[in-house]
């Protein structure tokens, strides 16, 4: 039953991510509330955070290739999140490769912790974000929380 729940959650996260990217990945209109520079900084920070998380996924996949089936779909979603925040071709090339524990279980736990912390950071940022960016942050934070759950339940 846990496998069925996991697949359901993963499918829901993927569908939510697809809906998110369909509705929010176009070039945003100028912010109407006069906070465009603050919103732009928040968006750039979210993009950096997504590419840093992408680097963590890539490092974990390089250190533990047997985790590929479990991590590849999540890594793909993280790349889509970076695109939604304005990164045209997301890659982890510009980030230093994070240290990855030798133990697979610990590596997954560390990745889950990174997802959880980033989801919390994005949730906190909702209070200062303009509406369109707040919706994007909320959706990506929810996906990150789902990723953390999936990483800890396998």
UniProtKB/TrEMBL annotation:
Protein name as it appears in the record: Lipoprotein
Q: Which domain of life is it from?
A: Bacteria
Decide whether keyword Lipoprotein is in the record: yes
Q: Does the keyword GTP-binding apply?
A: no
Annotated source species: Streptomyces chattanoogensis
Keywords carried by this UniProt record: Lipoprotein
In residue numbers, the region (Disordered) covers: 25-45, 83-126
- Which residue intervals are annotated with compositional bias (Basic and acidic residues) in the record? 100-123
Where is the signal peptide, in residue numbers? none
């Amino acid at each position: 039953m846990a496998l069925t729940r996991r697949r359901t959650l993963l499918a829901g996260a993927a569908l939510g991510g697809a809906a998110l990217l369909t509705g929010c990945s176009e070039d945003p209109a100028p912010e109407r509330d006069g906070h465009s520079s603050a919103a732009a900084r928040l968006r750039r920070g979210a993009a950096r955070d997504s590419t840093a998380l992408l680097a963590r996924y890539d490092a974990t996949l390089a250190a533990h290739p047997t985790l590929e089936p479990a991590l590849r779909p999540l890594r793909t979603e993280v790349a889509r999140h970076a695109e939604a925040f304005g990164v045209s071709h997301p890659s982890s090339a510009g980030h230093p490769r994070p240290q990855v524990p030798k133990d697979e279980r610990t590596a997954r736990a560390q990745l889950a912790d990174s997802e959880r912390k980033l989801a919390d950071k994005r949730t906190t940022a909702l209070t200062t974000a303009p509406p369109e960016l707040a919706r994007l942050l909320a959706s990506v934070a929810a996906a990150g929380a789902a990723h953390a759950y999936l990483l800890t339940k396998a």
